[in-house]
């Protein structure tokens, strides 16, 4: 089932209609289904905090996840981000809720070149969460193919589309010249979805700029969302 969430219900409905989704619902956290798989698409456009909402929901309804795979240009370890449940540290909270379920592995892939290991580890230490993850192995890399060794697991995939190079449909200043193409990212998602059980996927990053979604950047954003959702097996 595909759900669209966000603070702007009108934008949500327009995106859903254009993507060919029959019904657009602004879904509060407590109304997410207890049985998957689910695809959550954000119409907020900017913040990756909605992944927190998905994480919390999966935990609350006791849906087990073995591995979480995040595709994001920015690791978001030390920045407060908007989520449906308020201002939170996206990555740290994702760690915490999954640590309670003994997540085996967490991947953060597509990180912008130059993001150093020391920076990441300092952020983890500053947020005082490293000690809460005795069973979880953390992997981070610029290479989006780094999770190919994951097979036969229950996975949650989280995508900030600013990981894709040279996009115009995202918030200005968030993109870059490095990173995978849409085809490369969607192929990777299709591969890991085929080799594992996809419990949930969430997407964020498309920032609509025209009311009727007709400008070039909006057309690009819709294509990106549709391609990724199709790669995950939710749309034909």
Explain what this protein looks like in three dimensions:
The radius of gyration is 16 Å and the shape is globular. The protein contains six helices and nine strands. Helix 2 runs parallel beside helix 3 and helix 5 (182-195) runs parallel beside helix 6. It is α/β, with parallel strands linked by helices. The strands form two sheets. Strands 1-2-9-8-3-6-7 form a seven-stranded parallel β-sheet, sandwiched between helices. A two-stranded antiparallel ribbon has the order 4-5. The relative contact order is 0.19.
Number of domains: 1
Order of helices and strands: EHEHEEEHEHEEHEH
Number of helices: 6
CATH topology: Arginase, Chain A
Low-confidence stretches: 80-88
CATH superfamily: Ureohydrolase domain
Quick one: how many beta strands? 9
- Reading off the top of the CATH hierarchy, the class is best stated as Alpha Beta
What is the mean pLDDT?
76
Distance, first to last CA: 12 Å
Largest sheet: 7 strands, parallel
Structural class by SSE content: alpha/beta
C-alpha-based Rg, rounded: 16 Å
Shape: globular
CATH architecture: 3-Layer(aba) Sandwich
If strands are numbered along the chain, what order do they take across the biggest sheet?
1-2-9-8-3-6-7
The percent range for helix content is 25-40%
The portion of residues forming beta strands comes to 15-25%
